[in-house]
Amino acid sequence: MSRVPLSVLDLATVREGHDSTDAVRGTTEIAQAADELGYARFWVAEHHNMPAVASTSPPVLIAHVAARTRRIRVGSGGVMLPNHMPFVVAEQFALLEALHPGRIDLGIGRAPGTDQATAAALRGVSPHLTVEQFPDHLAMVLALLGDERVAPERAGPLRATPAARTFPEVWMLGSSTYGAQVAAALGLPFCYAYHFAMGGDLDAAVRLYRSGFTPSPRFPEPHLMVSASALAAGSTEEARYLAGPSRVMARNLRTGRLGPIVSPEKAADADLSDLDLRVLPGTQYVGTADEVVAGLDALVERTGAAELILAGAVYDPQTRRESLATIAKAWGL
């Protein structure tokens, strides 16, 4: 059976008893495994001031990962544009593209990726870094990265690199209909963050993206990717046990009890209420390879996605690598 490409989204999670160096090493090993297994893309997120997440600077981590992989595309899932001046983002990703031509993705989001106090620390007192300016800042990034549709005067005399030969692929990310409509209006590929917005606007976002899509030189047709969290193991019971830390992590985020990701043993002993068990997202697709693939197939059928990208918070990077290998084999990569 021919299936859509699969990719990997990673947060460089920090686990109890380990540090950020261990987290980045684990992410690098996961990326190398994804590269060998045939996954299409490896994206890293942007989060700040979170004890469980070491992925605070996507461009730095992308440079490291791309240098240690062979053919997989590497990118951001995503850069939270309101935290950064657009010229800086364009320069960073133009340089990444110069280092690794044809392999760099710039996924752009509108959320802060953190709490409001941390967002204020990132942005300082600049009047130029606000969510309201997102459309203008996105247009500036596109102009600086060679989008032919944006008037050259938008960038003025600025150049992201002196002599760009190729440009990174720009994606719009979102967990609501807003991102879908922006991507449609600009003719950009769109990734819906279903892995943490299960109760959100997936169907409406997909419908608005397709119905409102304006063809662009690089994308004459809509191109949709959907994220999902997945974990496969030898048995359903083992997979549920290994997915336990993701549910505890979701509970901690919801209640403000932030901390490193806990072990499966500790997660199994966690005091989760019946309500927690019903409403916490945890990992969406958990089970054997066949069970996970069936769920992913249904998600593709529901959305018509051209690609899927797989998230998954686990305690041990080895667990993630084994899960990705299991899914890749069953998917036919």
From TrEMBL:
It comes from the Bacteria. The keyword Oxidoreductase applies. Keywords: Monooxygenase, Oxidoreductase. GO terms for cellular component: cytosol. InterPro entries: Bact_Lucif_Oxidored, CmoO-like, Luciferase-like_dom, Luciferase-like_sf. Pfam families: Bac_luciferase. This is Alkanal monooxygenase.
